[in-house]
Amino acid sequence: MSRPIYGAADVGGETAPIVLGGESLPGTQSPYGLTLTQDRWNTSAELEVSLLQDTKPETGSRITCSVTGERIFTGTISSAESRSGWYHVIAHDPIYELKRTTLTQSFQQATLVDIAARALEEAGVDDVSISLPVERTSVEFTGTRCDRVLEKVATWGGGVWYVAADGTVHVTTTIAEMSTAHDESAVVDAAPGDRSMPYQSVRVTGASPASQKGADAMCLISSESLVATAGDGTPRFDYHDDGIRTQAMAENAAQSILEELKRQRATGSITLPGRASIRPFDTLSVPDAIDTQTYLVSGITHRLTSQDGFRTTVTCGGVLAEGSS
Question: Which residues pair with 310 in a beta bridge?
Fold first, then answer.
């Protein structure tokens, strides 16, 4: 007999249990439990959950959700519908607002940290952690989505950005510190795979002297645009961005793009008994009889249902290590 699965959400200080299955009145929908989807792309994580509580959750309220005692999500309620004795709630993480908010501003010799902080402030995101190189650039954004501003800044700094389970938005180069290795012995279903990288090398070009002004241009010795490369071979991915104003930024961007291409090597998915602790950017390995490789976790889907209990499906990202066959 399987052990019970416990799940709950906190909405405005009120804890509500997650409803699973059960009898429904004629003409009404049955509660289904919980589904959480999240990936490492700039896609908002979405929580869909059935909650048992006395008052209707308010749209815009903060919600945290835990399964088996571990938090898996923090975000804001987008909608709440009353059903037969329970509430159907949909919530999103801060990326939802970053994608809905645009930034129009000109920056002169601003640090990458300042630009990232401004985009987050514009979207009303308060819980942030930014750790980027001390590089400066002059750049103008006109009606640019705030998530795209973060994507640019992270690339210029050679880092990534993501949302943690506590709702904090991180823009950082310390990727290894946020990654946890999971060596799983129990697997429900597995269909991982490996594919060739779409590009073998990257060439990044930044601003040319003609596009820079004042001190920026005076510091340049060459009349050529800033250029940096990473990787070796063809096909080559070419990337141009006038916001790149220093050689260090160009080199950071080239390496960042190459690492991203490596993270896209794998394909397929692995379904496990529920693992609340697994997050995008973690690593996953399974018994050698199933697969000998270690994969980057590109995305996760947590499901909690009365039929299957708690299950986690991992979308495989890059192949990080290969074992002996």
Answer: 304
Whole-structure pTM value: 0.81
pLDDT at 155 over 50: yes
* Position 215 pLDDT exceeds 80: no
With tokens 């799983």, the residue in question is 184
Look at residue 195 in the predicted model and tell me its pLDDT: 60
State the chain's maximal CA–CA distance in angstroms: 78
In percent, the amount of the chain with pLDDT more than 70 equals: 82
Place of tokens 């950005």: 161
Topology of 97-176 in CATH?
Phage tail protein beta-alpha-beta fold (3.55.50)
C-alpha to C-alpha distance for 59 and 120, rounded to whole angstroms:
21
Q: Which of 303, 272, 269, 313 is nearest to 5 (CA)?
A: 303
Listed by start position, the domains of the chain span: 7-92, 97-176, 179-194+265-300+309-320, 201-208+222-263
Q: How far apart are CA 36 and CA 311, in angstroms?
A: 11
Residue positions counted in the chain: 325
- And the tokens for 82? 């009353």
The answer to whether the Cα torsion of 139, 102, 99, 78 is positive or negative is positive
Mean pLDDT, the chain, rounded, equals 84
